[in-house]
Amino acid sequence: MKQIEAQRNILDFTLSSLLRRKRKNAVLLLVYTLVVFLIASVMFFTHSIRREAALVLKDAPEMVVQKVVAGRQDLISGNYIDRISGIRGVASARGRLWGYYYDPIVGANYTVVVPETGQPQPGSVIIGDAISSSRKLYKGDLLAFRSHTGEAVLLQVEGTLSSESALVSADLILTSEDDFRELFGISKPFVTDITLKVGNQRELGTIAQKITRLLPDTRPIMRDEILRTYDSVFNWRGGAMVIILFVVVISFINFAWDRASGLSAEEKKEIGILKAIGWETSDVIMMKFWEGTAISLSSFLLGVLLAYAHVYITSSLLFEPFLKGWSVLYPDFRLTPYIDAYQISTLFFLTVLPYTVATIVPSWRAATIDPDVIMRT
Amino acid sequence: MIELADVRKVFNMNRPNEFTALHGVTLHISANRNTVLKGPSGSGKTTLLGILGCMARPTSGRIMLGEREITSLPERFLTEIRRRSFGFIFQQLNLIKGITALENIMVPAYPEGERRSQLKKRAVALLEVFGLGQKATSRVEWLSGGEAQRVAIARALINNPSVIVADEPTAHLDSKLSEEFMEIMQKLKGEGRTVIIASHDPIVYTSGFVDTVVEMRDGSVVDVRATG
Amino acid sequence: MILYPPIIALLLGSFLVSMMLLYSASFAIKILRSWDIKSGSELQLGLERKTYLISTIIGYAFGFQLISFFLFIYTADDLCVFFVGAMCAVGTLHVDPFGYPTLIMKILNFLLAGTWLIVNYTDNKAYDYPLIRKKYYLLLLITPFVLAETVLQLLYFLGLHPNIITSCCGSLFSAEAPGAAGGLIAFPSIPMKIVFYSGIAATLVSGAFFYRTARGGYFFSLLSALTFFISIAALISFISLYFYELPTHHCPFCILQKEYGYIGYVLYALLLSGALSGIGTGALLLFRKEASLVDIIPAITCRLTLASVLAYAVFAAITTYQMIFSNFKLEGY
Predict the structure, then answer these.
(1) Element housing C66 (H / E)
(2) Distance in Å, alpha carbon of C48 to nearest chain B alpha carbon
(3) B167 to A3: CB separation less than 8 angstroms, yes or no
(4) Which of B175, C19, C170, C301 sits 20 to 30 Å CA-CA off B101?
C-alpha cells in the first residue's frame, strides 16, 4: 500500500540521517541508556524483593498469638491451643516451634524451625542452601550444635532446602520436634507461638479481641500488620529512591527537550531542503517520530539488558550498600529474576513517555519550517 | 496556466518591522513557455517565485493553477500539488550532504510511496540522461560544480513535473555552464514543460530561448515583454 | 499511598497527558476565535501550522491512554497482596471509592480521543477544513474528562493504605453482593445469552445493511455502542465462567493473566475497537452533508463499519468457541 511504502522510505531516510550524525546521537543514546539503566535497576530490584516478601507471606499464618511477659515475648503453653480453638470463627490452631541459633564459626544466626509437615528424622536436619555452601555441608555430613546445657549435639544432614525464595530458605534449618526441644531446652507443652487459621477474613479483628480478653497475657499479630511493616521499610527506602528517580526523570526531560530543540544549522538546512522539494509537515513529523522511536528503542533495550545483568548477575553491585544491610551470611546474594511485561511497560512509562513528550514540541517546530525558507537565505 | 490576481505578500504584519514584499501583482504565466523574472535583489522575485511555485500563500489576492483556485488550500494539498507538478532548482543547489547523488534524486519522491526498486530505476535513468550514470553512488560533496548542477536538475525532474522553477540558477556558474543550463531548460520546454526562472543574469534574460521577461522592481511588476 | 514504580508511572503518565490536553485546549480557544481559511494572514498560517502539533499530541495521548488502561488493571492486580481479602484487581479497585470510576474514565477517554482522531483524519482529507470548529469544540469537551481521570486516579492511589480489608472478587461478584455486579451474576444465564447474541447479531446485521445501502448508520452506531456494554456484561455474567471453568468465578480481570493465555487482552482490544469504530461512524455521519466531505465520508465510514463488524464478529467467535469447547457446562447439570 502506498502509505506503507511512503513510511518505509521515510524510515530509511531517517536511519541514514541518524547514522550521519553519529556523534551527537551517541551522546543522546548514552544518556538515555543510563537513565533507563538506573530506573530499571531500581525497579527490578524492588520488584524482586517484593515478590520474595510476598512469597514468604503467602504461607504465613493469618494470625499468630504470642505470650508476652513484661513486654517481651516468652514461651507459650500448648494448653492455650484448645482454648483458642474453641473461639467461634477459628478454623484451626496449632503450636509452632522455632527459634534462632547463633553459629560462631560463620558469625551468623540460623533460623531453626520444626515444620508442620515433612519433619526430618530424629537425629537429622535439613539445611538451607546458603548454610550448605558457606559451611560446605552436604547430605550425610554431620553438623555440630551446642545445646542449652553446653553439650555438643551432632545432627546429620538429611538434605538441603531449595525454595522459590532464596530469602526464605537460605538460613533455615529444619529439625524434628524432639531434637528441637533437646537443643533449646524447651519442654512440653510449651511452644514458641500459636498460629491460627480463620474461616472469614473479616472476623480477624473480632477474633483478635476475643483472644486478648480470654488470654490477657498474650498478643495476637495479624499478617497484614507484617505486610505493613515490610511496606514501611520499602517505603522509607522507596521514598528516597523516588526522589532520586524524580530528579533523574526531570533532568532527563530537560536534556531531551534541549537536544531536540538544539538543531544544528546543518539539520535545520536539511529539513528546509526536504520541505522545499516536496515533503509535507506531517512527513517531517513522521521522520522525527521514527528518529525518536529508533533512539528510544535502542536505549530502552540496552538499558534494560544492562539493568538485568546488573541486578541479577552482579547482584546489584551499585545498590547494595544503600539498600540492603543484610547480615554476614549473604555476601553473594542472588535474587531470582522476576521480569514481566508489566515491569517493562512501567519502565516504558517512566522513560520513553517523558522523552517522547519532551520532543513533541521541538520536533513540530522543526517540521513547520516554511518551505521557502531556504530560498530566502 | 498560472494566474495571479492582485497578489500581496506582507511579512510581520502589524509589527514595527512590517514589510510588504509584493504589492498587488497581477500576472499570467503561459504554459509551455520559458518565463524569466528579472529584477535586482529586493525586487520581490524570490517571494513571487515562492508563491508561483506553491511554496507560500499570498496575504491577499487570488491564484489559479489551470482551472483550480489554490489560494486557500491547506498546506498538505498545496504540498501535494507542488510535489507532483513542480520541480525546483535552487541558487545554492541545496543538495543533501552525506548521501549519494542517486539518493538525492530519489528523496522528493519518498512521500509518494512508490516502490523503492521502481523509484531507483527511474532515478538511474535520469542520471544517465544527464551523463552522470557513473556518479550514481558518489557523495555529492565529491562532484564538480557542473555535475552537482545537473544532479540538482535531475532531482527536480524525478516526479515528472509540468513546471520547472529555478531561482538564480547561474549565480555560481561560469558562462559556459550558464549557457549549457539554458540549453537544458530549452530541452525541457521541448518536452512540453513550463519553465520559470528568476534571475538578474544577462545570459539568462537575454537568451534566445526565453519567451517572456517579467521585470520587477520594489515588489511590483513594472514591465512584461514577450521576446523570442 | 504506596510509592511504587507502576503507580508513579501511571501518575506521571496521566499528569503529562493532562498537561498536553490543557495546552491543546488553550489553543482550541484561539482557533475558535480567529480561524479563517480564506485568509492568507500570518495569524492564519500560524494557526494552521499549530493544528499539526495538536493532532500529534492527541495521537500520543490516545496511545498512552490505551496502554495506561491495561497498566492500571495490572497494577491493581499486582497490589492485591497488600490488601487482605483482595485476590485480584477487583479487590484492589474496591479499596476506595475511586477505583472503578477511574477505570471507567480511562475507557471513556480512550473512546473520546479515538473519536477525535477519526474526526480529525476526516477533516484533513477535505480542502477547506470543514470540521475545524466542531473538532475543537469536541476537544474542549474532552479536556475536562481527561483532567477528571487524572484527579480520580490520584485520589484512588492516595486512598490505598495497605492495612485495609477489602472484598475479593468472590464476594463482590457473587449473587448475594449488593449492586450491579451482584445483579448481573444473579441474572439467569440463558436470557443473558439471548441478550448477548441478539446484540451481536443486530450489530452485525445493521452494520452489513449500512455497508451495502448507506442507510441506518446512526442506528448501527448506537447498536455498536450498546453491544459494547452488553458484551462487558456478558463477560461478567457467563463468558468468563467458561474461561475459568468455575461456576462462581465471574471476575472480568483475571482473564488478562498468564494462566488464561492473556486472552483478556484480545477480547478487550476487540471490544474497544468495535466500539470505537462504531462510535466514529456515528460521529462522522453527523457531518456527511458538508459540501467538501460528501465524497470523502462514505469511504471512511465504510471502512469503520467493516472494522467494527469484524471486531464484534471475532469476539463472538472466540467466546462461542470457548463456550462450546470448554470443559465446563453451565446449563443442564
Answers:
(1) helix C42-78
(2) 8
(3) no
(4) B175
Determine the straight-line distance between the first and last CA of chain C, rounded to whole angstroms: 47
Look at the alpha carbons of C194, C196, C200, C203 in this order and tell me if their dihedral is positive or negative: positive
Confidence at residue C332, expressed as pLDDT on a 0 to 100 scale: 56
Distance CA A56, CA A168 (A): 6
For cell 470448554, the residue is: C326
Burial category of C295 from C-beta neighbours within 10 Å (exposed 0-12, middle 13-18, buried 19 and up):
exposed
Interacting residues of A186 by C-beta distance below 8 A, sequence separation 6+ = A75, A97, A180, A192
CA distance C138 to C28: 9
Please check whether residue B77 touches C, CB under 8 A.
yes
- Round to whole Å and give the CA distance between C119 and C222: 17
ipTM here: 0.89
Q: Could you tell me which residues come within 8 angstroms of residue B133 by beta carbon, excluding any fewer than 6 positions away?
A: B124, B127
Q: CA angle, corner C72, sides to C66 and C73, nearest 5?
A: 100
Angstrom distance (rounded) from CA A278 to CA C50? 20
Between chains, do B112 and A372 touch, taking CB under 8 Å as contact?
no
Cα separation values, A174 from A95, A203, A213, A264, Å? 16, 32, 34, 68
Element (DSSP H or E) covering residue A341: helix A341-367
Residue ranges of the alpha helices (H) in chain B? 45-52, 75-85, 101-106, 116-129, 145-157, 175-190, 202-205
Contact C38 B76 (CB under 8 A): no
| B–C CB contacts, 8 A cutoff, strictly below | 30
List residues bridging with A4 in a β-sheet.
none
One-letter identity of residue B36: V
Burial of A129 (0-12, 13-18, 19+ CB in 10 A): middle
CA-based nearest residue to A282, from A1, A2, A12, A6: A6
User: From the CB of residue A180, how many other CB atoms can be counted at a distance below 10 Å?
Assistant: 21
CB contact under 8 A, C71 and A349: yes
**Closest-CA residue in chain A for C2?**
A235
- Tens of pLDDT, residue by residue over A113-159, are 888 887 888 888 888 877 787 778 888 888 888 888 888 888 888 88
B31-52 per-residue burial string, b: 16 or more CB within 10 A, e: under 16: eebbbbbbbeeebbbbbbbbbb
Q: What is the pLDDT of residues B129-150, one digit of tens each?
A: 888 888 888 888 888 888 888 8
How much is the pTM? 0.79
Task: Write down the pLDDT at residue C167.
Answer: 56
**Of B97, B111, B167, Cβ closest to residue A279:** B111
Contact list in B for residue C36 (CB cut-off 8 A) is none
Q: For residue B96, give the chain A residue with the closest CA.
A: A270
**If you search the block for the grid coordinates 498538505, which residue do you land on?**
B76
> In the structure grid, which three cell numbers stand for residue B153, read together?
536538475
- Rounded CA gap, C235 and C267, in Å? 10
SS (H, E, C) C97-156: CCHHHHHHHHHHHHHHHHHHHHHHHHHHHCCCCCCHHHHHHHHHHHHHHHHHHHHHHHHH
Beta bridge partners of B2: B29, B65
Contact criterion met (CB below 8 Å) for A295 and B125: no
Distance, CA of A157 to chain centre: 32
What are the extents of the domains in chain C? 1-167, 169-333
A273 to chain B nearest CA, in Å?
7
Residue B63, strand partner residues: B4
Residues 160-179 of B with CB under 8 A from C: none
Contact between B164 and B195 (Cβ < 8 Å) = yes
- Classify strands A108-114 and A172-174 as parallel, antiparallel or unpaired: parallel
- Residue corresponding to grid cell 548521501: B99
